[in-house]
């Protein structure tokens, strides 16, 4: 399917559809949860942000003491990104049932998924274990790779570009997190999803970068999650639905 949308356009379309009558239920709850979680995270950041950055700087060898002011700024940037991603990933796990159903509704409205009956709260609760488990799978993908950044902070010269590398990595993770909802709804396994996303790395990285930037902007960060779910579902429909169908058909032929 051909389309004329850029990666940023998909996120903008997501924001525009937040008020759609058939999507409101699955949008309002994540936004409310984001507000409550953000207040709690800001409270923690206010009390521990300075101490965390000071703790990281304390690991510097004495011969790099003259760089402490510059490194303090770099560590502060890195810590801010850690807080941002922590906020995003925990919010996604908590809101996973609603995000999965939101992606399903968007595909019903703008894709090729047949309409279903309106979701009841019982159905939302029933979908929770599977959706939370899938969100947890993304976290397990993220965690060991994120840990690899820690030793880079103590390598001369390399540590100067760690915040940039961290941003790139998190932009990719944002794409994985939000594309996972429509992929999961269409029975695409996690490894298979990674393979599909790698076929259009630049598009997915750009989409994830716009989402990541959105999480850093006050007020916007409270509504960026449902907008990103909607945008990712529209991106799935335009770029991956047909490709996934062809892959499924090929597998069926091979198995037959």
Backbone structural class? mainly alpha
Mean pLDDT: 79
β-strand percent reads: under 5%
List low-confidence stretches: none
Q: From the structure provided, what is the oligomeric state, counting identical versus distinct chains?
A: single chain
Radius of gyration: 20 Å
Shape: globular
Write down how many β-strands occur, each being a DSSP E stretch of 2 or more residues. 0
End-to-end Cα distance: 28 Å
Major sheet details: none
> Can you write the helix and strand succession as a string?
HHHHHHHHHH
In helices, the fraction of residues equals over 70%
Question: With helices defined by DSSP (H or I, 4 residues minimum), what is the helix count?
Answer: 10
Structural overview:
The chain is mostly helical. The chain is built from ten helices and no strands. Helix 1 packs across helix 9 (220-239), helix 3 (68-110) crosses helix 9 (220-239) and helix 6 (162-185) packs across helix 8. 32% of the residues are buried.
How would you sum up this structure in a few lines?
This protein has 256 residues and is mostly helical. It has helices at residues 7-16, 24-57, 68-110, 121-147, 149-152, 162-185, 190-198, 201-215, 220-239, 241-255.
List keywords for this structure.
mainly alpha, 10 helices, 79% helix, globular
